Amino acid sequence: MSAATALPVTITGVRRAFPVPASRGGRADRASRSVRRGTTGGTVPAERIVLDQVDLTVEPGEIVAVIGPSGCGKSTLLRLLGGLDTPSAGTLRIGDQIVTGTDTRTAIGFQEPRLLPWRTVAQNVALGLPRGTPRSERATRVAELLELVGLTASADLRPRQISGGMAQRVSLARALARRPGVLLLDEPFGALDALTRLRMQEELLRVHAARPTTVLLVTHDVEEALYLADRVVALRTVSDGEHSPVSDVAPSVVRVLDVPGARPRDRADARLAELRVELLEGLGVVTHHVSGASEPYPAI
Ligand SMILES: Nc1ncnc2c1ncn2[C@@H]1O[C@H](COP(=O)(O)OP(=O)(O)OP(=O)(O)O)[C@@H](O)[C@H]1O
Ligand SMILES: [Mg+2]
User: Fold this and answer.
1) Residue 215 and residue 107: Cα distance in Å, rounded?
2) Ligand nearest to the CA of 17
3) Residues near 96 by beta carbon (within 8 Å), at least 6 away in sequence
4) What is the C-alpha separation between 85 and 100, in angstroms, rounded?
5) Which of the listed residues 14, 23, 75 should we mutate to test ligand 1's pocket, taking the one with most ligand atoms within 8 A of CB?
6) Whose CA is nearest to atom 29 of ligand 1?
7) Alpha-carbon distance 179 to 2, whole Å?
8) Cystine design at 79: which of 24, 85, 226, 263 (Cβ 3.0–4.6 Å)?
9) Rounded distance between C-alpha atoms, residue 117 and residue 191, angstroms
10) Atom of ligand 1 at shortest distance to CA of 16?
């Protein structure tokens, strides 16, 4: 099977605001605006800014992890990249094309595997193949993908007959089936136990090494981000759930961190442990770490 052509991702000045329902008050503030029109006296609906001034370039084949507090817009960013949502301002590009809708060059892996229960493992993977793949090629491609994620022996099982980790691997194989230039993964291992999660991280690195593709990985796990990614992007919450600002509306991205060391990384690497503490403290977690080495950065 030929290697995927990893594509660059360019995000420029992206903003995503959602209207605030009038029944919820729509109170105006710096993050949710209700603008009074001078001459007519009318108002435009209040809006809640979820993402603002997002600028990010991801190189072909790079793995970028996106972290940040719950509700800060991580999934929204992936949905925008996957063409499942539209930005209020700014542009997102895959390769040199602006994202205007779903794109066969992009694959999304959701937090839950979303398998069809009445189909076998192999049939679920086949669902990811591009439309028009010749019948003769389909079986070979599915067999290769199952081998890639270590599920050859489980090809004929149904989703209820496999474990959660296996289901996640089926989901990953299905996402890879279209040979995506960009793979968008939203908390792909979030539902797994700690050990399976570590194994799946290795699996992802193995698959990435075998078939390089650009990966944007949303995760709540800072350690996972530092273990897998070339860079970690930290987002902040621009406005909270009550439509009031927690800060001035400022760029959503508060930190872009280059992760040192080539993969596979030593999980006990002292530099990664320091960075983990630094990122966790940026997320507001008390780490009880005593160090004079790391510079504080603006709270997320
Ligand atoms: N279609 C929508 N309409 C209105 N608000 C939305 C919509 N989609 C998302 N939001 C709001 O945008 C905010 C960010 O949502 P998003 O799902 O991107 O967060 P997240 O960072 O992925 O959070 P989590 O870590 O909990 O998954 C949330 O407060 C959510 O309520
Ligand atoms: Mg989310």
Assistant:
1) 10
2) 1
3) none
4) 9
5) 75
6) 71
7) 9
8) 85
9) 18
10) 12
Alpha-carbon 5 to chain mean position: 19
Ligand with smallest separation from the Cα of 221: 1
Report the residue among 74, 217, 218 best suited for mutation to probe ligand 1: largest number of ligand atoms under 8 A from its CB: 74
Does the beta carbon of 72 lie inside 6 Å of ligand 1? yes
The architecture CATH gives domain 1-17+48-105+180-286 = 3-Layer(aba) Sandwich (3.40)
Q: Write the single-letter amino acid at 239.
A: S
pLDDT digits (tens, 9 = 90+) for 2-14: 445 899 999 999 9
CA distance 18 to 39: 25
Instruction: Provide the mean pLDDT of the chain.
Output: 86
For the stretch 230-241, pLDDT in tens is 999 999 988 765
- Give the pair of three-digit tokens for residue 235: 């987002």
Question: What CA–CA distance (Å, rounded) separates 235 from 297?
Answer: 13
State the pTM of this model.
0.86
236 C-beta closer than 6 A to ligand 1: no
CA distance 25 to 23: 5
DSSP secondary structure letter of residue 206: H
How many DSSP H helices and E strands does the chain contain? Answer: 7, 11
- Residue ranges of the domains in the chain? 1-17+48-105+180-286, 113-179
Which residues, 6+ apart, have CB-to-CB distance to 169 below 8 Å? 149, 150, 151, 200, 203
Parallel, antiparallel or unpaired: strands 47-58 and 32-33: antiparallel
Tokens (6 digits) for 62? 């790079």
Of ligand 1's listed atoms, the one at least distance from the Cα of 73 is 18
Tally the C-alpha atoms within 13 A of residue 81's C-alpha that lie toward its C-beta. 36
Output the six-digit token pair for 191. 């539902």
Which residues, 6 or more positions from 203, have their beta carbon under 8 angstroms from its beta carbon?
149, 150, 169, 172
